[in-house]
Amino acid sequence: xxxxxxxxxxxxxxxxxxxxxxxxxxxxxxxxxxxxxxxxxxxxxxxxxxxxxxxxxxxxxxxxxxxxxxxxxxxxxxxxxxxxxxxxxxxxxxxxxxxxxxxxxxxxxxxxxxxxxxxxxxxxxxxxxxxxxxxxxxxxxxxxxxxxxxxxxxxxxxxxxxxxxxxxxxxxxxxxxxxxxxxxxxxxxxxxxxxxxxxxxxxxxxxxxxxxxxxxxxxxxxxxxxxxxxxxxxxxxxxxxxxxxxxxxxxxxxxxxxxxxxxxxxxxxxxxxxxxxxxxxxxxxxxxxxxxxxxxxxxxxxxxxxxxxxxxxxxxxxxxxxxxxxxxxxxxxxxxxxxxxxxxxxxxxxxxxxxxxxxxxxxxxxxxxxxxxxxxxxxxxxxxxxxxxxxxxxxxxxxxxxxxxxxxxxxxxxxxxxxxxxxxxxxxxxxxxxxxxxxxxx
Length: 442
Known about the structure:
The protein is an alpha/beta fold.
């Protein structure tokens, strides 16, 4: 990076800084001189020095007496003088008060007194995050009050504005400001704004009066000051719980931005929805897995498998019996033909009777086998139903679980426990109100 590039970067940074583009600097005049229509001088404060230039100063400073050591307030913008690589105040106006120097000395004297007494060291009170009511100590006709109204209505219209009217300039304003602050402190407001528009040190002097400063110091409610412009500092700023550069800034300090809150709620809702959906998906997967395991081990599943085995067994026996019967029938037919050829009709009839007896006995045997297997099947089914954990539920009983464990004794329960009661067709959650250790049920 070269010198030119660095300098241009500093120039752009200063131009983009709105604070330094419109400043009011207080200090003593030093080395004031004209060069043609322009004026060149410095502003001093203690050991600090600021170079200044004012173009067309001859016309801008008409009827103003500028001398060495004069205490002034200069308005303008901070810019870089690129040929020398220095910054300076490009001055547009200079304010010289009749009692400016005297007021400034009084300001510094009171500031030192209050500082020595520890007034500026008081811990700051916290501001409410969401104020319901905001007390504003200001003139009802002032632009400062209107700025507060506009800012609050734009950022946080849920808050109610309570105006405590007061004068903000002149001899009578000091007592009015103290009384307005007292009323605001005794109201049901959550926070107090003390605001006024910009002006000279004479215009803002009421906010440097010791009575006003001590009133702000003793306030029970948090106080935010927004007196003057950003470059203006009054003594009430040192004792307030927060100092804002302008009345608008004071309103911004005590109100959240409703749009930001809505955006944060929306983001939080989206994150919560994503989290809950992920949890729901995980739990659904676990439930399906457990359901598959339970289905494979459930009594009804085992009973179904037993039924299938018995039916398969019956089918196998039936096929074997059919095969035996067919073979016997063929054998009998062959024997019958042979008997017809070799024996008498009586012998054939006797043989038929024997065959019929064999068939009859075989049928009795098959019926006995079938009845026996059916008895075995019914017994197995009864045993399975007897061991079915859901059977008692259908009779009106229920299972009680505490933290996933089955409750079997009143000793396991305490008042306030959350219980899960499993019924035949669902479950319910309930709280324990009383525990009685007794064998009686009612």
